[in-house]
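Appendix B. Chain record.
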Amino acid sequence: MDSSHNGLQRQKRNPFPKAHTMQNVSMSTWIVWFLVGMAVLAFSMSIVMIRDGGEKGGHSGRAGTSGSTVGALLDAHIATQWREGRVRLGSLLALMKELRASLEQDVETLGRLDPSGAEYEREAHRTV
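Structure tokens predicted for this chain:
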């Protein structure tokens, strides 16, 4: 009975492993992509709500314009916003690539140094 009891006991482990810089970068990447996805979803839903509101007889601010003119204006606005969003996303991705390269270089530099040495401490302070 004693041996079966020992088999049921488990050692308590820390549920949070020690963080590593590249793991933080990976988590940051996922967070950024999640936020970008949420922004795209919110933008898409607002467009659908705007279009549905116009089709259901919602009051338009332009009294003398036809439905097709309003639709064309809305389509042009959506296309402009889409292009601007793609440009912003492209620049965010470029910045993330630069950040990743910089962090990888810092990790490589610190990995080559002796953690107990003064040079390691200097380099660590420089990167922070």
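Further analysis of this model is presented in Appendix C.
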